[in-house]
Every structure is written in structure tokens, then in C-alpha cells.
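PROTOCOL LOG
Step 1. Enter all chains and additional molecules of the complex.
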Amino acid sequence: MKLRLIRRDSASRLAMFTAPVLALVFTCLASLVLFAALGKDAGAALHALLLKPFLSWYSFSEVLLKMAPLLLIAQGLAIGFRANVFNIGAEGQFIVGALCASALPVYFPDGDFPMMLPAMIAFGALGGTVYALIAAALRTRFGASEILVTLMMALIAVQILNYLLLGPWKDPRGFNFPQTVMFPDNALLPILFDGTRTNISLIFSLLASLFAYLMMQHHFRGYQLRTAGLAPRAALYAGFSAPRMVWLGLGLGGLAAGIAGASEVAGPLGQLQRSVTSGYGYAAIIVAYVGGLNPLGIIASSFLISVIYIGGDSATVSARLPVAAVEVFQGLLLFFYLLTFTLIRYRIEFSRKVPA
Amino acid sequence: MSQPALLRLAKVSKRYGTVQANKEIDLEVHSGSIHAVLGENGAGKSTLMKLIYGVEQPDAGHIYWNGQEVHLARPSDAQALGIGMVFQHFSLFETLSVVQNVSLMIPGKPADLAQKISDLGDQFGLSVDPHAMVHRLSVGERQRVEIIRCLLLNPKLLILDEPTSVLPPQSVRRLFETLRKLQAEGMAILFISHKLDEIRELCDTASVLRSGEVTGRVDPREHDARSLAQLMIGREMPNVAHAAPRPPREERLRLNALSHPRASRFGTTLEGIDLKLRSGEIVGIAGISGNGQQELAALISGETRAQEPGMIEIMGKKVGHLGPMARRKLGFAFVPEERLGRGAVPEMSLADNSLLTAHSRNMLSRGFIRRSVERAFTRECIDAFDVRTPGPDAEAGAMSGGNLQKFILGREIMLNPDVMLVSQPTWGVDIGAATAIRRRLLDMRDQGCAILVISEEMDELFEMCSKLHVLHKGHLSSALDAAETSPQEIGRYMIGAAT
Amino acid sequence: MSGLEFLLAGTLAASLPLLLAALGEMVVEKTGLLNLGLEGMMAIGAAIAFICVYHTGSHVVGFVAAAAVSTLIAMLFAVLVIAVRANEVASGLAIGVLGLGLSALFGKTYESLTIKGLPKIDIPVLSDIPVIGPTVLTQDIVVWLAVIGTFGLWWTLNRTKLGLIIAAVGENAEAARAIGYPVVLIRLAAAAFGGAMCGVAGAYASTVYTPLWADGMIAGRGWIALALVVFGTWQTGRVAFGALLFGILSLGELTAQAIGVGLPSQVLSSLPYLVTILMLVVISRRKSGAF
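Step 2. Run joint prediction.
Step 3. Record the structure below.
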């Protein structure tokens, strides 16, 4: 018996939907085995991971809260990924966005001007964009790999954050905790549903998804980006500027991450603190890929990953699962997704060797 | 026949997905014979060779070696029996030296191998410097390295896959002498080709392949090219209608002392290239790939920018500094030699591939793609250029070479260009499609388009062009009148014997 | 111990994790693959080695187990890239995340525990040489093995047929397959080698260099190792040289923090990352933009 991959005439629509579902099933099975091997109650763990978030309105609202930054960042990253621009340091752009946004309430703690919140978002957007564009400049000017540069810059961003929180931006009345002052009310995003923490950043994310959908699926610019990713030489032949694709891919990724960072400090955190480095930037990479780099798919995948985050929180209690289990689950999900993704463009043929 | 054949295939079949590449092939090859496998592109020749060389395994059928049935699971099995293969696109490593390349297949100390390489070179007219780096060798020399590497394994059967397609006429002579010497030593040679004259000159047996099946076994010396062609394509050889060329009119493309340094050590530096192309004429650039063809095409298309704007003029404008889109706006169109990944995006539908260069044909509205226009354009291209495909939604990557080439050519022609550059128009394309493509180009010429064709196929150039240049090591010859020159003269330019 | 002696004695050990991971990845890339998951493979190696050494007390067991588990993770990458032709970047990231997650999962209960490192070996005669004897030439066994191994790798890649085969597969896989080399197997073996080297690198970091396990202890070293391959232009000697530079840099950072230079510690901690970016800019300018 021999396995062979045969290219389909066109990508299979059916497989496009079944691949992620299959991946999720495989991931659950693998996690069950893993958790059981660690001596945990695997059933309870999976129940907590995948079902608990739906069992109360509050925990579901927390899922939506998590979803906002993941969705926003992933939409930005996916645009770059489709053009083969691999921004894997969105975490850094997210942090810088949070920093820039925080500068306003930190320096004007009772700044009573009405434009505070919009200005914060704008600062965050600008910070994230500029931080990402440094990598674009180094790539287009010197040919330095954006993969490594964006990642190194993410590691540097953490140090900048640490420096500010331990030094100049530390709340003088904060009992020496590494955090800034609490932001005033006019520096906080309005809450979407009363009694929850879900804020209007979810709306930003959905708008960004609409924008990404229109651009990537229906606009010539998105077509150029896709061409650059699928066949760089065809893009060159057509005359689409390669450097422009790099600037655009990184810039939009940084912009999205920056806004997400600003929304995080102006949202659930309400101040700048160390926990802002919670790994959204890295998780968004997984969200983008598991969503098939498709703007609509990413909405679904960001929801799924958010469920797992919130489920993971409750699993730490109910199944004594370490927080790292969530990371493992994400890693497995991406692994199995890439494995099943092949089905979209190839079909598997079993050929029986003829006994000669 | 008293002695069993050296190699015998009995009802060998191979299928790829829905394509039956080989169907119940019977074949016998004897020692001391030069046996041709004749067929056009896509007839299943390459698949058959892969089966014999153990690269692929048959789905059904038997292979016998000296009367014994054998199973060739991998190339090393075939090598162990005494089967050697010279590939069409050489399996040499450019960053390694000749000796290193040889030592990848042949055990032994480098010094000993170098000696053996020189000895074989003397014996069979295959001279090459053992210590040269492969990327510095000419195509002919590379082929010699491949043959030497095979001969060092002491093969009883040597397979050559389209060995002359990359050689200038003079080198073809030399290769044939080598092959005859090997034949005299008792070696069996399988000679894969679609060039009828060569087969008639060299081979004593020919098996003709069509759509994966053997359609004839003949002695090619007793048939003329016409009847061989009929066996090969199953009908009369199509003729290209030669309309009398009109006198050329205004100048549309001009290269002025175009020079460009090579981009990598595997590239070619272009030096002082002058060329004029006028409305209503087809000018050809002959020469073997790797002498600067790709570099020149990229410079004319704008994929590479020239060092000075004035080095390239399109429609009387200096365009050396402009990109491909700007040049298209001036009325330029380009069919590149690589269809997949350059002329078309494999993962995209034909409709989306129309957008690649034809977006200016009213396909965009404030930057948004107008799907209906895109589809209508694609549909028209498919119909007008006889592209065999399920429709505009089929992906480019799933199409045959000939069909995709017709699509790309059609797309570029539908841009109504004033100047067109076509690079290797019929590479890997079956005869039917090739004929259609040439006919289209002649039509374009008659409508006043200025066309520059870069090709390795000399017959094709003589068929279409009124003037020929030869590109050799980055230098372009002056224009030769196609009616007055000969393939032999062009061949001398191709190897640098004439300038 | 003076600052200079500290540098001389510690550089090799400090650069070892980078060196091993980078050399492993160099071989992987030479066969035409690109595995971005170094960070994760080093992390899982570090965690597994620590756990094994903690329970068995044997560094041999720790190193072997680390190499084995990291190889296993590398094989997941190989399955994605070779068997189902998945996107290389995404596949590397996937196993990277998986490795990091698993290391945190397994290592959770071992945080803040301690084990013994490896003793430095006094080699008679060598250790009597003034200045460098007691510093550069007094190292633990792994360092010596790594030094020998680096020379061995250089020899293999530049002087043996295996090296030629690896170069051939990397340059033109299609041709290598056509002349009969099992390209898939060779790439698989290279990926496994890269995984094993990352495992050993992680093991050294967590059981010898700083004998403790902490989540995130690899701290970007996998990514720096990746950059070192580019910096070293895929040549053993240059990659080793780059690793040594980073070894010195990380010790310099420690020294500077100890004696309290006027810079915030975060600036010093950022230094390796900044230098990596600088290095990429300088090197890539000469070469093509391809990773």
C-alpha cells in the first residue's frame, strides 16, 4: 500500500471547512492522552477547556473580551503572512502600542481633556505601526530577515516595558509594584454589555475583519499581496512592487497590534502593568493560520482560541491543569491544522502495488 | 532472435491520478543498437524513462533485463544492473566541481577520478576539465560531464532524454560521434527525442509513442520525416500559414548599448546589446539558454531595471528606469518562459490570473475587482485561444503546459499590444498547441504588432522571423536576414565561432 | 577572579547552547529545510534534561533523554514539511509553540528545585599553563566534547562524501533524487540531527550552565542561534565564531550588572537582541535578502 498526494483541480471547498474541524478533533484526542499521562482528570480538563466558557454569560463575555485583541492582531498578521511577510513579533508591537497609549494617562493622570481615549488609541496605533516598520525598513533596505528582526524587537519591547514599570512610570503610591497609576475614567474604553468587562474594542476587531475581508478578497491591493505570497516571481512579472508589499504587510500588522495593545491598557487592565505581555501577539499567529489566513476563518479561529484561554483558566482550578496546557493545546491545534490543511489542495490516494 | 533482449518491457502501465501516462507499453532494446523513443511533448516518454531508471514504479507490467524479470525500486537498482541516464535538465550541482559531481555517484579518490575523467574524455571525445566548477561550464560541457558520469558506471544501456534540445548544431555532431563510438563498443542506447531528422540520422530502431501508447515500431532510416511525424501525432503535420510579411514600419522597441552586470555568479553579464524592432516584423533571438536570455528578457520587461533609462526605448520613450506596469501602459506585453509561478500563479483560478496583467482592461472599479469583467475576459480568452479547461475557475497549476501557454499568450494578445516579447513560446508544448501559438504570433505580426521572440528552437525561429540575432555569453550578434542565413551559420554564432 | 579571568573561563560554557543549536540548524538548512522551532526544541530539551537529572542524578541520562525528545519534536516538523508539504514557517512556529508549551507543562513542578552541575576537569599539563590554563582550558566534559564535535562537523561537511551529499541535496534536491540519493531520508536525518542538537543545547543550559529549570529560561537563545546561522553564512567556523561572540556578550552583560555600570539592567539585557539585529543588517547587506 502506498500513499500519494494528488493535486486537485481547484482547492476543495469542503476540505476548507472540514480541515479545521478535523484538526480540533485530533487536538482534543492528543490532549486527552497527554493530560491523562500527566495524571490529570483528562475528561474534566477537556470539559473545562471547551465547554465551561459557554456555561455562564459572564464567562462567555470573557471569551469575547479575549477575542477582541486576538482577532484584531490576527487579521493584521494574516495580511502580511499571505504576502510571505512573516511578522512574528506582533507581541512587541502590541507592547509598544500599550506603552504609547499609556504615556498619556501616565503623564496627565488627571488629564481632563475629552480627546483622551481617541488620542490613546491613535498613539497606540502609531507606536505599533512604527515599531513594525523598523523591521520593514531593515528588510527592504538591507535584506535583514523580518522573521528574526520582529522577534528580537519583541524581546526588546519587553525590556522597555520592564524599564518603564520599574523606573520612571512606576506608580509612586503603588506599594512598589511594577505598574503605573490607574487610568482615569475618560481613558477607559466604554463597556459593551453591562456587568461584563467586554468593551468596544470587539467592535474595532470586527470592523478590522470587514476591512481585511474587503481588501484581501475583493480589492486589487489584496490581490497583489496574495500574488506576492503565492508566486513572488509572478508579482515581479506583473510589476507589483515587492518592497511595497513588505511595508504594507508589516505596517498593517503593526497597526492592528498597536491598537490592540492600546485597547488592552484602556480596557481590562486599566493601567500599564507587566501582565500586558500575556502572549496575545504569539497566539495571534496561531489564530491567523488556523483561520486559514482567511478574514472570515480568522473570526472563527479567534473565537475558538479565546474559548480555550478562558477554558484553560477554569481548568487550572477544576482539573489542576497548569496554565501551560493552553499553550500546548494551541501548539497541537496548529500542528494538526497544518497536517489536515493538505487536504484542501491535495487528495490522498492509496495505490496498491500490483504484485508482479 | 536467439539472444534475449538486453531490456524488455512487457505491458508496462503507469497512471498519475486520472492521467494514463503509459499504457501497456512493449519495448525491446538490444546491445549495440541506438533505439529511438519518439513522441511529442506529453506522449509519455519521460514517464517511461523514469520507470526504466527506477525513479518511478509501474502500476502494472513486467521489466526484463537479459531475460530475467527485475524490480527497480530506486535509481540505484537500475544503476546496479548497468543502466545509466543522462537527464534533459542536467542533474548536476552547480556549486560543486566536476570531480565532486562525479564522486557523488562513483566511489574512488578524487585524483583517480580526475584521471578517469580525462581518459574517458580522450577516448570518446568528451573533453572537460575535471577540476572546473560546474557553474562555469557551457551547456555542451555539462552534458559531457553527465555522460562521463554515466560511463564511469560501465553501463550496458545508456538513456539520453532529449539530449540535443539544448545543443547548437556543431555540438550535436560531436555528441553523435560519441554515441556511435559507444554503439561500436556494444552499448545499447535509448535516445529520447521529438526531432525527426536526428532520429533518422542516428537510430536503427524507433518506437513511436502517442498518448501513452506505442503506436509504431519502425526502422527510421526507411521512413521520411513526414511519415514519422504522422505516426507521432496521428495525423498530418500541421502547417503554419506563411502570409507574406508586410514591409516593417515604425520602430517600436530599441536597445541602445544595453549592458547589465550579472546578479549572481550563476548569472550572465550582458554587454553592449543593440537591437531594433519595428512594427509588423518578428525578430528572433537564437541561442542556448543560459547565455543571457533570462537577463535580457527581464530587462526588456522591466522586471530588472536598466542602469540608464536610455538603454531601452519602447514606442520611442526611454523606459529603462520604468517598471513592468508602466511599460505595459505604453503598449508592451510579455510572455515569459516560465509559465507556472511567473506567467501565472498556480494556486489561482484562470480568472484571477487574467487580473495579473489585464487589470487595466476595465477590471477594476476604484481598486475593487469587477468579477464579471474578469470572468468575461477569461471566458473570451479561453474560447478565442482554444484553451482546454473546465472554465475560468480552474486553477492554473492543474493545467497542461500547452493549455496554460495558450492562455497566457491569449491574455497578453488580448491586451492589444504594440510591442510583444515572447520568450521560449513553445517549450514543453505539444505540436498542436505549438502550431497554434506560432500561427497566432504571425497573425499579430500581420496586424502590425512588433514581436521579439527568444527561442532555443531554431526551426521555430526560421519559420516565423524575418531577422535573427544570436545571444552568446551576454553578447548579441548583429541582425542576420533569415532568408539569407542558415542554421549552420547561426550555430557558429551560438558557440562563439563567429561574431 | 578578575573580570578578564571570568570572561576567559566562562565564554565557552556561555556560548555552548547557542553553538550547538546553531550548528544543528546549519545542517538542517544545508539540506534545504528551515526549522524555526529552535526555541521550543531547546526548551523541551532543557526541561526533560532537568527532570531526568533531578530523578536519576545522571547527566548522561539527562542529555540522552533531552536529545531524544527534541528529536521527536523535530520529527513532527519533518512530517509537516516533508510528508504533507505544509508551509515551512508555520510548521516551525507550530512545533516551537508546542515545545515551549510542553516544557512549561512538564517542568512546572520542578521550578525552584536544584541539581548539581558538572565538574570542571583539570587536565594535567594543560591546566598548568599560565593564565589560560586554569581558565580557558579548565572546562567541563561537555565543552570538550562540543569543541571536538565542532571540528568533527567541519571535517564531515568539508572533507567527506556525506558533506558532499548534504551540499548536493541542499542545492538541487530534484537532481540528487534523480541520481539515486534518498532525499527525503537525508532531510529527515538532518532534521533529527538539528532536533538532537537543540535538545543537547537545552540540556546544557538547564543542567550544567545554570543548573535549574525556569519557564522561559531559553530567553530567545533559539532565535539568536537561528540568526547565527545566517551570520555564519552556513560555514561551521564562522557560526562557531559568532556563538563565541555572543558568549562573551552575555558574560559581559553579567559582569556589567555585577559591577553596576551606569546603564539600566534592561539595556544590558536587550544587548544580545540588538546585536543580533545589527548582525543581520550587516550580513544581509552583502547577501541576498533570502532568509
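Step 4. Note key features.
The CA atoms of residues 21 and 198 of chain C lie 5 Å apart.
Chain C has a mean pLDDT of 91.
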